[in-house]
Amino acid sequence: MSAGTTDHHDQPLSEINVTPMVDIMLVLLVIFILLAPMITNALQVKLPQAKAQPLNEPVVVDLVLMPDGGLLLEGDAVTRSSVIEHLQQRLKATPELVLRLNADGMTHYETLAGVMGDLQQAGITRLALAVQPR
Predict the structure, then answer these.
(1) Overall CATH class of domain 60-130
(2) What percent of the chain has pLDDT over 90?
């Protein structure tokens, strides 16, 4: 017999063995994972009919600003004064008009600012600046 050791066999076990509980929980988890797709596919849902009108896509007009200051309106070469006239006519027909301005990266800032000022004078309130993603 060694000195300083005590015999704890007479006392009841005070700790709970959680290993069987963890095993049961893992089995239940696997069962739920396997049954979840079957349950969602088995549900039949009757969706209501839509009564709202489909959204109208805005009319987009493309304006390209070249590095030399030239303008292309929907592929046609135009001058700055004719752009204003054309856009004012288009705005009367479709007030929700969106102008997409495609400026070349080599275009001078002063030229771009001047064209944007012209667009503001033409009444363009919805302007989108197009860029190339990197």
Answers:
(1) alpha beta
(2) 12
